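Input/output pair, single chain:
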Amino acid sequence: MTVEIKDLTVADLPQLWQIEQAIWTNDNAPNLNEQLTFADYQENTLKQTILVAKEGDQVLGFINYHHPSKMAAHSKQWILGIGVAAEAQGKGIGAKLITALIEKAKQEGIKKISLRVMETNPRAKAFYLRRGFQEEGFLKNEFWLDNHFVGDYYLAYYLD
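Output:
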């Protein structure tokens, strides 16, 4: 399998939409896209900075990233979001996306990459820890999902 990491294009959006609709559940993320139409999704997504993992024309996964705010104090930090199509999980796609983002961060002088992962998603947390992310905090009872509270871990990767 030859997987390339590329910038998102408009042509990738239908596949990206399908991936996001399929992978997000109350076990891994509060579903932000559940009420969106494709037109709304397209408009919102095109405002983001996103890399996609592709094999030929098939989108296998994505990683988005942005500064936490527009403050100069946040200019050296990115927050990431990542998703991999169910059929591509466990095949190194997420690792390739993380590696590509770390390389891009080095080129752009970023010193910290952070993310959040719900306590109901231990597989994802373990994935990030294996890639050098560190647990920085835990937000107890952060989300009310399916009639109970769910906590959220805050993880970070530091670049030299």
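The CA atoms of residues 103 and 159 lie 10 Å apart. DSSP finds four helices and seven strands in the chain.
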